[in-house]
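Troubleshooting entry. The earlier prediction with NDP gave an output that would not parse, so I re-checked the input for stray whitespace and re-submitted. Clean input:
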Amino acid sequence: MPFENARARTMEDLLNLINGELRPAVKGHWMDVHRPATGEVLARLPKSTADDVELACVAAEAALPAWKAMGREGRSQVLLELARLIEADLEGFAQLESMDNGKPLSLARKVDIPRAVANFRFFATAIIHFSSEAHLMDDVAVNWTDRQPIGVVGCISPWNLPLYLFTWKIAPALAVGNCVVAKPSEITPCTAFRLSQLCAQAGMPPGVLNIVHGSGAEVGAAIVAHPRISAISFTGGTRTGAEIARVAAPMFKKLSLELGGKNPVLVFADCDLDEALDTTLRSSFTNQGQICLCGSRVLVQRAIYDQFRDRLVERVKRLRVGDPSDPSSDLGAVVSHDHMEKVLSYVKLAQEEGGRVLCGGERVRLDGALSKGWYIAPTVIEGLPEQCRTDQEEIFGPVISIAPFDEEADALTKANNTPYGLAAVIWTRDVQRAHRVARSLQAGIVWVNCWMVRDLRTPFGGVKQSGVGREGGVEALRFFTEAKNVCIKL
Ligand code: NDP
């Protein structure tokens, strides 16, 4: 199996999964996948085109009747087996995810891969309990909602949590009986490839899940524009989401868009300071700050501002940027050279806008084989004027801003003052304030005195430019089905 010996090898060829077959792109072209820790080439992936997407769609359509006929029990068994196979190879998946993305191996072991397993298990069992609604009109009629799979659906996922977010989409789509044409990010395709090697073993019929590798501009765009793909579930940047909506909306496709964020963390003076500090450190820099849910604007009530800032900066300075495979590394590499340049350009911009860099702010050069890797020191910036670009645009790296606020109303105005509305965190011991502020925040997800605590049954998604629609639990099962009302006269 390719990547069996991933640590020892530097070069592999990834393949598309189409109609149950692992195959190169129709045109035979390739593109490189890099290893962020060292900057070296890790693998080649098929540089697919619309021709490959077409083959995948034909295979998916042909597979629909048999997949649907397996019924929810049958599909559930396949997805549970897939979960079991990933779990049995957790270490292999985790090493690959870390190598491909640059994230600490410890994080991939603890979060990314277990969560991918949980996604399959959750939706494999959720469909067993998913019931349709009935509406009785006294003695007149009974209505019941028939929820059928949509048909062939497209799933497009980003690079920050590669297998975690890929499976978050394909698991519900498959569970309810759709066939899928999926595209992982071209930057981090390795674990999706490893997953494709397990599908047949898990009992998944050919054509049910098709994975087409390649660039967003070519493969992603071909999936979005394909007339026989009736729904698109996309996670990625807001600009890409807008482009997808522009193409898909006139075709009346169902759309779920999970986009960017600029999440505020509100620290009130009555909070548990130690806990707020511990968690803010994590919510700022986990995965090098490359999680859509990371808090990137830390707003602290003035009475504790100096104390909180100084203690936070002191803790950030102690974070260790290092080899992703070293268990003592808190941060690994950011995902690509381009992304590193983009993040550093925001630090420069912040300074031009009047911000003071309290710590970090530069590229970290490690020794030996890691000297060409893409590492950034965790960065805290203070003194930015309101409405500046640094505080309005998504940076998506290990960079946060910190600023004081006076009263609750001031905190809310500042928190809501961006075009985004994905997540927010509140730190307070006042339960009434927690409710009040949570309800007034323009965000799809609010955590009080915690961060990234996830129950897969809850709705997940954002408001404003952070997206359209919700994923998770019943929301996902509803998105991936078409509701038909059947009205029967009594
Ligand atoms: P991008 O928008 O660049 O890419 C996301 C996916 O879309 C990739 O697979 C990409 O392919 C593909 N793509 C690019 N262009 C097109 C197109 N024209 N048509 C169809 N597909 C296309 O995002 P990133 O990969 O850079 O991911 C980071 C972004 O994701 C951040 O903005 C982050 O906030 C957001 N995100 C949102 C989450 C949420 O739940 N709201 C969760 C996680 C991340 P390729 O990589 O091959 O170019």
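This one parsed fine. Residues 1-10 have pLDDT under 50 and may be disordered.
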